[in-house]
Amino acid sequence: MHSPLVLVVLQLLASNCHSLPFFNGFYYDHTHPGNGTGNGNGEVHFNGVKLVVNTPEDALFAYRGGNVTLPCLYYYVPELYSTRRIRIKWSKLHKDNTKERDVLVAIGPRYRSFGEFRGRVHLRQTMAREASLVITDLKLEDYGKYKCEVIDGLEDESGIVELELRGVVFPYQPYGGRYQLNFHDAKKACEEQDAMLASFEQLFKAWEEGLDWCNAGWVLDGTVQYPITLPREPCGGKDISPGLRSYGERHKLLHRFDAFCFSSSLKGKVYYLNHPEKLNFEEAKAACQEDESTIAKVGQLFAAWRFLDLDRCDAGWLADASVRYPIAFPRLNCGPPEPGVRSFGFPDKTQSTYGVFCYKMS
Ligand SMILES: *[C@@H]1O[C@H](CO)[C@@H](O)[C@H](O)[C@H]1NC(C)=O
Ligand SMILES: *[C@@H]1O[C@H](CO)[C@@H](O)[C@H](O)[C@H]1NC(C)=O
């Protein structure tokens, strides 16, 4: 049998080519091989043993504010029964999966987390050869693809876990009406309403679930789209099949449209304030404060409607000075026959004609 020997020689040659002891962001210490089949040369002991990393194929779903475990297991073929010195690295893919951002790096029991994940991630290793990642207090931006990388000597294997947040997409026009927002304004407008600019995938999913909106809005990838479920003349044409109509990429500073925002469930609750009189906008804000809460943001109302079935057939002010009401169980005199958040747009702020939706952290 010559093949194992040939393999050993090739591996030694390959390792000599890496004149810098830096590889995948990890420092490789070749002088202290771990236990196993090693002969003292760091890489050679791995001859004939394959490292396999297992991650789930299906995406995981989670909620904002919740915790999630991204499973990752590894093993050796043939199985090794000794304890090995391995390094685990979790990173998040972004920009069409061409770039990575460090999330966590672990060597033995020590680990370090990075950037927006600092203090919110740790490893779960409840069984042997587990390298699962726990993310706590999930943020809207946490959705996406994560890479679990296990490094043992020169063997470096990885698997991908996809995390999706359960959420709701809503079209957004600011005070002042239609087509006021360039890309940067749109991002900011969503954030001000406790949401973020929706990704293309999120908008697509919302369309699949029935979203129909005849004004074009910015999406996170810099394109402008609108979702049509019932084709009609003023919305791209009657004879075109339902779908996302795209204006393609637009100039992020010069071109102005609406926005598609994405929100997920929230901590706390949104409620229609019981108040003896109808209110104008300033009175509405003050009334929530008196009730030790704040006037609800649009993203909060959508989240409460979508995830908690908030249902109220009374129109109320919201933080952006729009007036809306959420209907989870459609009925007579409460708008169209589909569930939804109904909008009165932006009425005169001085009119004492409406109630108010407040938001209380709990
Ligand atoms: C190999 O394992 C033994 C016992 O488990 C331990 O004492 C020793 O330090 C290990 N050697 C290395 C290089 O990790
Ligand atoms: C998430 O985990 C943290 C820390 O482990 C815990 O305090 C918190 O209650 C958990 N949150 C949920 C929603 O389970």
Automatic annotation (TrEMBL):
<keyword id="KW-0732">Signal</keyword>
<keyword id="KW-0393">Immunoglobulin domain</keyword>
<keyword id="KW-0272">Extracellular matrix</keyword>
<dbReference type="GO" id="GO:0001501">
    <property type="term" value="P:skeletal system development"/>
</dbReference>
<dbReference type="InterPro" id="IPR013106">
    <property type="entry name" value="Ig_V-set"/>
</dbReference>
<keyword id="KW-0677">Repeat</keyword>
<dbReference type="GO" id="GO:0005615">
    <property type="term" value="C:extracellular space"/>
</dbReference>
<comment type="similarity">
    <text>Belongs to the HAPLN family.</text>
</comment>
<feature type="domain" description="Link">
    <location>
        <begin position="168"/>
        <end position="263"/>
    </location>
</feature>
<protein>
    <submittedName>
        <fullName>Hyaluronan and proteoglycan link protein 3</fullName>
    </submittedName>
</protein>
<dbReference type="InterPro" id="IPR003599">
    <property type="entry name" value="Ig_sub"/>
</dbReference>
<feature type="domain" description="Ig-like">
    <location>
        <begin position="50"/>
        <end position="166"/>
    </location>
</feature>
<dbReference type="InterPro" id="IPR036179">
    <property type="entry name" value="Ig-like_dom_sf"/>
</dbReference>
<dbReference type="GO" id="GO:0002052">
    <property type="term" value="P:positive regulation of neuroblast proliferation"/>
</dbReference>
<dbReference type="GO" id="GO:0007155">
    <property type="term" value="P:cell adhesion"/>
</dbReference>
<dbReference type="InterPro" id="IPR000538">
    <property type="entry name" value="Link_dom"/>
</dbReference>
<feature type="disulfide bond">
    <location>
        <begin position="313"/>
        <end position="334"/>
    </location>
</feature>
<dbReference type="GO" id="GO:0005540">
    <property type="term" value="F:hyaluronic acid binding"/>
</dbReference>
<dbReference type="GO" id="GO:0007417">
    <property type="term" value="P:central nervous system development"/>
</dbReference>
<dbReference type="Pfam" id="PF00193">
    <property type="entry name" value="Xlink"/>
</dbReference>
<dbReference type="InterPro" id="IPR007110">
    <property type="entry name" value="Ig-like_dom"/>
</dbReference>
<feature type="signal peptide">
    <location>
        <begin position="1"/>
        <end position="19"/>
    </location>
</feature>
<dbReference type="GO" id="GO:0045202">
    <property type="term" value="C:synapse"/>
</dbReference>
<keyword id="KW-1015">Disulfide bond</keyword>
<dbReference type="GO" id="GO:0010001">
    <property type="term" value="P:glial cell differentiation"/>
</dbReference>
<feature type="domain" description="Link">
    <location>
        <begin position="268"/>
        <end position="360"/>
    </location>
</feature>
<keyword id="KW-0964">Secreted</keyword>
<keyword id="KW-0373">Hyaluronic acid</keyword>
<dbReference type="InterPro" id="IPR050691">
    <property type="entry name" value="Hyaluronan_bind_Proteoglycan"/>
</dbReference>
<dbReference type="InterPro" id="IPR016187">
    <property type="entry name" value="CTDL_fold"/>
</dbReference>
<dbReference type="InterPro" id="IPR016186">
    <property type="entry name" value="C-type_lectin-like/link_sf"/>
</dbReference>
<feature type="disulfide bond">
    <location>
        <begin position="214"/>
        <end position="235"/>
    </location>
</feature>
<dbReference type="Pfam" id="PF07686">
    <property type="entry name" value="V-set"/>
</dbReference>
<dbReference type="GO" id="GO:0072534">
    <property type="term" value="C:perineuronal net"/>
</dbReference>
<dbReference type="InterPro" id="IPR013783">
    <property type="entry name" value="Ig-like_fold"/>
</dbReference>
